[in-house]
Write a structure and sequence with these properties.
heterotrimer; A alpha/beta; B mainly alpha; C mainly alpha; B: mainly alpha; 2 domains; 18 helices; 76% helix; flat; C: globular
Chain lengths: 322, 382, 330
């Protein structure tokens, strides 16, 4: 198993209280597989990614848990080891490419730096490889483009550069955080194609994080659904989409508008709103909005348990499939 | 006892500032109010002759001091009654306001440094207004010089005496009046002139705007302090002239800012939206300009007062601003610089007061900026 | 870029002209007869009215104001700022004498300011919330808010008067002429320490505050987290990735300090009896010596204009996003 996360807990210690952004998450990612992590904005998906790489800024921090990557527990790794994993073992594509690129350095330099750091190249080798990689990313005139600054690039191109930087160190796992959110639809398709291409090419595992269910569903072998910092359902993609178990997952899927459906088909939402993470309901955090909830659900948050082949779900009302 | 009776008793108690709050359990506020009122009353009693006697003298500033003291007392009583009434009807500090003002006020009051700064500033200004009542000695009176000159700080003379034997504490109080009021008035002038200039320029646009802005550029090119120096050299440095000079050197900044705000408002989408529903131009400007421009104007106003006070102090120190014998913190420091070895207190205290004042305004500006910053309002977690 | 510079320089000509004009008219706003001011040093003596008339003719004060103005313009263009009323010397000569003294102070002060201010600001930001950070924050606030003359006096009191480490004023000691060459240099340096220190510390306080807040801002940006995620050492992240961005406005501000070089030491020079431009201006203001006042104010204003230009150029040179050239076709 390439990545094995067990019971990860990360919190922000604010004046207003403790905000548990990630509250006991466990999952695996195997070599070469694509796992999708979905959920609404603010459910903690990005924090999971940042926790794995220990990038949470003060006043937050990773409180407990184990993150086994390539045989090593990252939570107990030294600073040196961690540095090598970042970019070399695990690469991360950030949410907003525009903000994640240093505005005062040329993009070619930013890629070349990573090459020099993780692949031990010298300046010339790194530059040559940079140009090659830019071409591979589908950027026209890579020689010239490498000398550009981020502000000169379009959104799609910036995203490609981000991906180039992330894979420059030949990581075994690529975490893609909302890779298509800021882009036009046509560009989105190009990016997902690109991701699939590099996955094949470099045998990378991908952890793709997004609130765009359809995009993630297309790319992933397995799917994980998050709600208020907890994993509430996990399973093989096709299976999960066809027969979701958790009421929240069902609600999410039902809420997706169908292209081509008539205008008289009502849009279905989930009643209520996502609770404030500083003020979570007791027991199962979804119970105020859940059609199946009863008194049992208000005491303790349900543990996630296996309910079928390759399927886990955290709900008291879901029975094991036989 | 019926609840109405209980309420009425509390309200009656509120005539004595602090008592009402204390009987409602608001000990913090109650004690502070009581102490404040006691201080005012004690001051009146201690200096009864001066306080009461002011009304039979022709000196305007003594009237002001006495009336101010009365106002303080009345204000304490009024606040006590009003706040108690509000607590009784709302059951708290009102509904947790979501309006930007309420949010800003709350954020500001949570910033302890900023709150202390405002207290200090208000205290200094109050002391300055009350100088005729507070000052133990006449700042201009020269006693027996030989026995009184250059006395170090003591109970009798908290700040010591200067080379003429004058009590420096009293002089510092009167110096506060000059320094603090010049600073404040100069800021008001600068902000007002600047706003009008900028607004006119933006409103008319076109060639009027172009000409006015060119004039502004020329004005801006002169470094502030040098401009002040020159104007002080050209005109007589009376108090009024000094205020005008200080005010007139500082208005360009505000003018440019206000003009920028109005121009950007003209172009922004919500202006179009407002016009689409038929709002007349000046209403758009007023309703939208004030909220967005108010925050930076307030922050820069606080900084401007500090700057003006500093400028007046600098000019007076150089002998070009307020001239002795009228005390100003600046010229008091200058007088003290002649004899640092033997009489350090002459320069130390006025300068120290200046520093405290400037620090407070700086912290106040920081506090305002933090409280009114819209970005910070939304900053929670990643 | 060169075209831009040329354009800006060209555009500054009318501005400079306007500055010169404004100075002229401001000075002549003064109530009273300029002749009175000229004669002020000798007010005690009664001057013969005929002599007054002669003097008036000599200084062209009998001409109508627009003629005076044109004469003034012509003279200024040639660098002739007239003659000081009090010292009866050409202002130009006095300026040439005074400027080096001021430059000694201000230049060294800026160096001190930059060295201390920037490094303290960086350390303070990197070690946020530490004791050092708190000390720097509070200390710089106090020093920044303090009136410079008070800071100077307090330091003089401690270091000069009480400890006797440094001289209280002047540029050189009484026995300067008797010293050896090295002795002379050391003596000058010794006298420079306190005034430069005062100015430098006051400036450093402001710089440190700004540098700290700027660096903190940058450190919060997403691209810094991204840099960490690439595996770079924290030192590299700060020194290479963050600093380059944080320094942009600061470098620009230093570009603006051109007027400071000549005018920023007014108060310090007065306290330390330093014969520079600042003290010259102050005593000129006190003595109503218009030619000097006009000359210094004008020079200060022109330097401000040039300083702005320098700041803009520096900004474009340092921030790749800013360019004054016509947009290139992609």
């Amino acid at each position: 198993m390439l990545l094995s996360v067990r019971d990860l807990r990360s919190a922000f210690f604010l004046d207003e209280g403790e905000l548990w952004a990630v509250d006991g998450i466990s999952f695996d990612v195997d070599i070469g597989e694509t796992v999708g992590l979905v959920g609404e904005s603010g459910c903690g998906k990005t924090i999971v990614a940042h926790s794995i790489l220990d990038l949470i800024p003060y006043p937050g921090r990773v409180v407990s848990g184990r993150v086994m990557f390539d045989g090593r527990d990252l939570m107990r790794a030294s600073t040196e080891e961690m540095r090598r994993v970042r970019g070399g073992g695990i690469g991360i594509v950030f949410q907003e490419a525009a903000a994640a690129l240093n505005p005062v350095y040329r993009i070619g330099d930013q890629i070349a730096d990573v090459l020099q750091l993780h692949r031990g190249m010298n300046k010339q080798q790194a530059w040559k490889e940079t140009v090659r990689v830019l071409g591979e990313m589908g950027i026209p005139e890579p020689e010239k483009r490498a000398k550009s600054y981020p502000f000169e690039l379009s959104g799609g191109m910036k995203q490609r550069v981000m991906i180039a930087i992330a894979i420059a160190g030949r990581p075994k796992l690529l975490i893609a955080d909302e890779p298509t959110t800021a882009l036009d639809l046509t560009v989105q398709a190009e990016i997902t194609d690109l991701l699939e291409h590099i996955q094949e090419q470099y045998r990378m595992a991908i952890l793709i994080i997004s609130h765009d269910l359809e995009m993630v569903a297309e790319m992933s072998d397995r799917l994980m659904v998050m709600y208020t910092g907890r994993l509430i359902e996990m399973g093989h993609t096709r299976d999960l989409l066809a027969s979701p178990e958790h009421p929240y997952t069902k609600g999410l899927l039902a809420a997706i508008p169908q292209l081509g459906a008539g205008s008289d088909v009502p849009l279905e939402g989930i009643p209520g709103a996502v609770p404030d993470l500083l003020d979570l309901p007791a027991g199962c955090t979804f119970h105020p909005r859940c059609p199946l909830a009863d008194a049992d659900c208000e005491v303790e948050p349900p543990p996630i348990k296996t309910v079928g082949y390759g399927r886990e779900c955290a709900c008291y009302k879901v029975r094991m499939q036989t | 006892m019926r609840p109405d009776d209980a309420e009425r008793r509390v309200r009656n108690r509120a005539w004595l500032p602090g008592l009402g709050h204390m009987s409602l359990g608001r000990w913090g506020r109650g004690i502070r109010l009581t102490l404040f009122t006691l201080a005012v009353v004690l001051l009146m009693a201690w200096r009864w002759d001066r306080f009461f006697g002011a009304f039979s003298t022709p000196f305007f500033d003594r009237w002001v001091a006495s009336v101010f003291l009365i106002l303080l007392l009345a204000g304490a009583v009024w606040y006590s009654r009003w706040d108690v009434g509000r607590i009784l009807s709302d059951g708290g500090d009102g509904k947790p306001g979501k309006s930007p003002w309420k949010v800003a006020m709350r954020r500001f009051s949570e910033n302890r440094l900023a709150v202390y700064s405002i207290y200090l500033i208000l205290f200094f200004y109050a002391a300055a207004i009350l100088a005729p009542i507070l000052a133990p000695y006449d700042p201009a009176a020269i006693p027996d010089v030989m026995t009184n000159r250059y006395l170090p700080p003591s109970w009798v003379h908290p700040f010591g005496t200067d080379e003429f034997g004058r009590d420096l504490f009293s002089r510092a109080l009167y110096g506060a009046r000059v320094s603090l009021s010049v600073g404040f008035l100069a800021m008001i002038i600068a902000k007002t002139v600047g706003t009008i200039y900028g607004a006119v320029s933006a409103y008319f646009g076109g060639i009027v705007d172009a000409i006015l802005m060119r004039i502004l550029d020329v004005w801006f090119a002169f470094p502030t302090f040098y401009l002040m120096l020159m104007l002080v050299g050209v005109f007589e440095a009376s108090l009024l002239m000094l205020v005008l000079i200080l005010g007139f050197t500082a208005w360009p900044g505000t003018a440019r800012f206000i003009r920028g705000e109005i121009l950007s408002l003209k172009n922004q989408q919500f202006t179009e939206a407002a016009r689409a529903i038929g709002l007349p131009a000046h209403q758009i400007i007023l309703k939208h300009l004030i909220p967005s421009a108010l925050s930076p104007v307030l922050v820069t106003a606080a900084l401007a007062v500090a700057g003006m006070i500093g400028a007046e102090a600098g000019l007076s120190f150089l002998g070009l601003g307020i001239r002795p014998p009228t005390p100003s913190w600046g010229n008091m420091v200058s007088a003290g610089s002649d004899n640092l070895l033997n009489a350090w207190w002459v320069a130390f205290f006025p300068g120290g007061l200046l520093t405290l004042t400037l620090i407070s305004f700086s912290l106040l500006a920081d506090g305002l900026r933090d409280a009114l910053d819209p970005k910070a309002l939304m900053q929670k977690y990643v | 870029m060169l075209k831009y510079i040329a354009k800006r320089l060209l555009l500054s000509v009318p501005l400079v002209l306007a500055i010169v004009t404004a100075t002229f008219f401001m000075a002549h706003l003064a109530p009273g007869d300029p002749m009175d001011m000229y004669l002020e040093p000798q007010r005690q003596r009664q001057v013969d009215p005929e002599v007054i008339e002669l003097l008036r003719k000599k200084y062209g004060l009998d001409q109508p104001i627009h003629v005076q103005y044109v004469t003034w313009l012509k003279n200024v263009a040639q660098g002739d700022f007239g003659e000081s009323f009090r010292h009866r010397r050409p202002v130009k000569d006095m300026l040439v004498e005074a400027v080096p003294y001021t430059l000694q102070l201000t230049f060294l002060a800026i160096v001190l300011d930059a060295l201390f201010g920037i490094s303290l600001g960086i350390i303070s930001a990197v070690k946020q919330y530490s004791k050092l950070d708190k000390t720097v924050t509070i200390g710089s606030l106090i020093i920044y808010a303090m009136p410079s003359f008070w800071l100077a006096l307090m330091l003089i009191m401690v270091f000069s008067v009480n400890l006797g480490w440094f001289p209280t004023s002047q540029t050189r000691s009484m026995n300067y002429e008797d010293l050896t060459m090295i002795g002379k240099m050391l003596d000058r340096a010794w006298h420079l320490v306190l005034p430069v220190f005062v100015m430098g510390i006051a400036g450093a306080a402001g710089t440190a505050r700004y540098m700290r807040s700027r660096l903190l801002e940058v450190l919060n940006e997403e691209y810094i987290t991204a840099a960490r995620a690439r595996g770079f050492r924290e030192k590299t992240v700060i020194m290479k990735h963050a600093l380059r961005n944080a320094m942009i406005p600061i470098v620009t501000i230093y570009g603006m300090s051109l007027p400071f070089l000549l005018g920023g030491a007014t108060i310090i020079e007065t306290i330390f009896a330093w014969p520079g431009m600042g003290r010259m201006t102050v005593s000129a203001v006190g003595g109503r010596d218009y030619p000097i006042i006009m000359a210094t104010v004008m020079i200060a204003a022109v330097l401000t204009v040039l300083g702005n230009l320098l700041a803009d150029i520096t900004y474009a040179a340092v921030d790749p996003r800013v360019s004054y050239d016509a947009p290139r076709r992609r």
